[in-house]
Design brief:
Helix content is about 30%, strand content about 25%. It is built from 20 helices and 32 strands. Bound molecules: adenosine-5'-diphosphate and zinc ion. Adenosine-5'-diphosphate binds next to helix 7.
């Protein structure tokens, strides 16, 4: 290489003493100058730098500006043992920050969620499963073994293992003494086992084959492109996109599959293992710290070919990302509602377009946004029309609740009861769906009419009889169920009002005393592991009636389930939220799709007091495109997403008046918004007017599709000064409006 002379400087490398600009995850919003350390450093290197009295993590973002006294500039302390951040990652973070109006420091925090990134390669001990069985099995010991088994032989530190298995550390030490578990030095971050794209594919149907081929061809282009993969639940979307993953792996590139729910990963990992012969890396909040650190590093070094994870996996330092799949792409949990407000689906498209990867958005009921993008030709469309094998879509019927005679405090109508009884006689499973956790949504004092609310939020406390507590679903605060009314002190007059999943279970047990009734609600299982075990047991036939919340709507396979009863199909239709129709439609179709996945014909019964409501009628008719067209028409008419742009501004403070005052001032000084033709609405109390003791006010801004909204918003909000207790959060494309 003629250019590789010693006198040709590498623009990607800074020699000892050169000035470098370092971005830290501290809320400073400035790139700080430092001197490159002894031995120099690469552009993008992860470094430790001094900041005041502290040492903090940072990334070498570029050359230093050198605009202040060189003598005062401090040196980088050391370069960390991690692959430098790639240019495409820097671009991704920068553009995501611009889009969501988030400070770069907060974006960097998302990208460095690797615990112990700065740790020296320590001599910490970790534990693995040994070959010897313990001399005596106790429940605690069994939990340790089970935990190690469950995590596929991953290493845990002593503390992590004790916490995950819920045992004291002495139990683990006892097992280690017998070599039933092995204590080792922390390995130097082992790569993940090799996934073989040709390990064992299924024989695809004609439809699936064509879809898989189209996705494979897309991956082979090595260029950005998005495909919306539609198909009813059970049509084989997963089988089809696993073929795209196989193609990506054959090309030697990395793949990422995002799932909306941790509870789904277990089932999915088993499928991946069957398809590729080994387990991929798994990234979500339930993964141990040791393991997260390993994944972060291995992804960066190319030692992890496939990552299966939650939305935050999008910020892992992939070296060579070729494909991102967003499964159940319509799911609202892809929107992060805390801290950095981003929608992982949109950020996926951004990341892929920067690094030249393919995107597959898979759903039985796509979001209106994705549907519109596909209609407009921005995304490729791929549809699987049939269910795999002999399974067909369930028959959908409405139970008109106005014609059912139901005593008060009963929710299972006689018609639904008959349908369940018929299933019980045939030995088939039924699912009763209600989208409400807990026992009852309202606890009312029959003496004074007081409803128990949260002390910190504008929300009711929900009785959870299973936990024997009242819980606030906004802030998580809980307290024991009081004996007396907190308002009038009357004793024994507090009464539950309305149904929750626990109360429905009670009713089902009373109506069907011989049936095995199981409740599936996220708050009733201590761990993802317990939930997974329950789901597997149900799939194997260990229940006759399943009572479930939203959790069951998502992708689980229950082959013996032939009846779905929706207790309150009208629940999502109330309120003024413009997305309510879309959400109800999606949820009802997802839930109904649980019925009849194997050889047996399924049936879905929707209990409704307004069967003539257009959304209920569209669900019954199964006319998906008709529904989307009607929805799209209304949104276009209202000029809201995806046909217009929208942002929510939430002002919050411990002081009740201040947010209104600042909001009013902003609404008045709307010049920067008017310049781009944007309009501001509000201030009005936010959908939840108080959370964790903070009073919240919302402004909504709408603009035309092409308008430079972010730039105008920045100029606009910069006009007001905020007191220390005030917070202003911008939510681009809010979920509810
Ligand atoms: P979706 O993702 O659309 O809900 P899945 O890919 O999960 O559908 O398929 C539903 C079920 O049918 C799964 O158990 C899957 O293994 C099975 N299945 C789908 N296609 C095939 C096929 N071609 N051969 C064997 N089993 C299949
Ligand atoms: Zn609360």
């Amino acid at each position: 290489n003629p250019f590789h002379g010693a006198d040709v400087p590498d623009p990607q490398f800074f020699d000892h003493g050169d000035l470098v600009g370092v971005l830290t995850a501290q809320p400073l919003d400035r790139i700080l100058d430092y001197k490159a350390p002894e031995g120099g450093c690469h552009l993008g290197a992860f470094v430790e730098v001094p900041l005041g009295p502290r040492k903090v993590l940072g990334v070498v973002w570029g050359a230093g500006k050198g605009d202040y006294d060189r003598a005062k500039i401090r040196s980088v302390i050391r370069v960390l043992d991690a692959a430098p951040m790639r240019d495409e990652m820097k671009q991704f973070l920068t553009r995501a920050a611009e889009y969501t109006l988030t400070p770069m420091s907060a974006m960097l925090r998302l990208a460095t969620r690797a615990p112990g990134l700065g740790d020296p390669p320590s001599m910490k001990k970790v534990f693995r499963l040994g070959q010897v069985a313990p001399d005596r099995m106790t429940p605690a010991r069994a939990r340790v073994i089970e935990t190690l088994n469950d995590y596929g032989g991953l290493a845990f530190t002593l503390k992590e293992l004790a916490e995950t298995a819920d045992v004291s550390t002495s139990v683990i030490k006892g097992l280690a003494a017998q070599r039933a578990v092995l204590e080792e030095d922390r390995p130097r971050d082992l790569p993940f086992p090799h996934l073989d794209p040709d390990h064992s594919g299924k024989t695809l149907t004609g439809d699936q084959q064509a879809g898989a081929e189209a996705l494979r061809a897309g991956v082979r282009t090595g260029q950005y492109g998005t495909t919306l993969l539609r198909g009813v639940t059970g049509s084989g979307k997963t089988e089809v996109y696993l073929e795209a993953v196989a193609e990506c792996l054959s090309q030697g590139r990395q793949a990422l599959v995002l799932l909306p729910e941790i509870a789904l990963t277990a089932e999915f990992l088993t499928r991946v293992e069957a398809r590729f012969g080994a387990r991929p890396a798994e990234w979500h909040s339930g993964v141990t710290m040791t393991e997260r650190r390993r994944i972060w590093k291995m992804v960066g070094q190319g030692g992890a070919q496939l990552v299966v994870g939650a939305r935050s996996a999008l910020f892992l330092p992939f070296q060579n990302l070729g494909l991102i799949v967003v499964d159940e792409e319509h799911d609202t949990s892809y929107k992060q509602e805390d801290g950095v407000l981003y929608n992982a689906r949109d950020m996926t498209v951004l990341r892929a377009s920067i690094c030249g990867a393919r995107v597959v958005l898979a759903s039985a009921t796509p979001s209106l946004e994705s549907w519109a993008n596909a209609e407009a030709g921005k995304y490729d469309k791929l549809t699987l029309t049939d269910r795999f094998g002999v399974a067909v879509m369930p028959v959908m019927k409405c139970i008109d609740m106005r014609n059912e005679s139901l005593p008060s405090d009963r929710w299972i109508s006689p018609s639904l009861q008959r349908a369940v009884t018929a299933r019980l006689e045939k030995g088939e499973q039924s699912l009763l769906f209600i989208n409400r956790r807990g026992y009852a949504p309202i606890t009312l004092c029959r003496a004074c009419g007081h409803q128990i609310g949260c002390d910190h939020c504008d929300a009711r406390m929900v009785e959870h009889r299973f936990l024997k507590r009242l819980v606030c679903h906004q802030c998580g605060e809980s307290k024991p169920m009081p004996e007396k009314c907190p308002s009038c002190e009357a004793e024994g007059r507090l009464a539950p009002v309305g149904p929750g999943v626990e109360r429905l279970t009670e009713e089902a047990v009373a109506l069907f005393p011989d049936a095995r009734v199981v409740t599936l609600s996220s708050d009733m299982y201590g761990s993802a592991r317990a939930l997974k075990a329950e789901i597997e047991a149900i799939a194997a036939g260990a229940a006759d009636i399943i009572i479930g919340t939203q959790l069951v709507a998502k992708g689980h396979n229950f082959p013996q389930l032939t009846l779905v009863g929706v207790i309150d199909a009208d629940l999502g239709l109330q309120g003024s939220d413009l997305r309510a129709a879309e959400r109800t439609f999606q949820l009802m179709r997802q839930v109904a799709g649980r019925a009849g996945r194997a050889e047996r014909q399924g049936e879905a019964l929707l209990q409704s007091y307004q069967p003539e409501h257009p959304v209920i009628r569209a669900i019954l008719a199964g006319d998906e495109d008709g529904f989307w067209r009607a929805e799209a028409g209304e949104r276009r008419h209202a000029g809201v997403p995806p046909y217009g742009r929208m942002a929510g501004i939430i002002l919050s403070s411990t002081d009740p008046q201040e947010p209104f005052d600042v909001g009013t001032e902003l609404a008045r000084r709307d010049g920067p918004l008017r310049q781009i033709g944007a309009k501001v609405f509000g201030p009005a109390p936010a959908p939840i007017a108080r959370i964790r003791g903070r009073h919240r006010v919302r402004l909504l801004v709408t603009a035309d599709k092409g308008a430079p909204l972010q730039a105008a918003l920045s100029r606009w909000v910069a006009q007001v000064r905020l007191s220390p207790q005030m917070r202003l959060a911008v939510d681009i494309d809010p979920q509810s409006f």
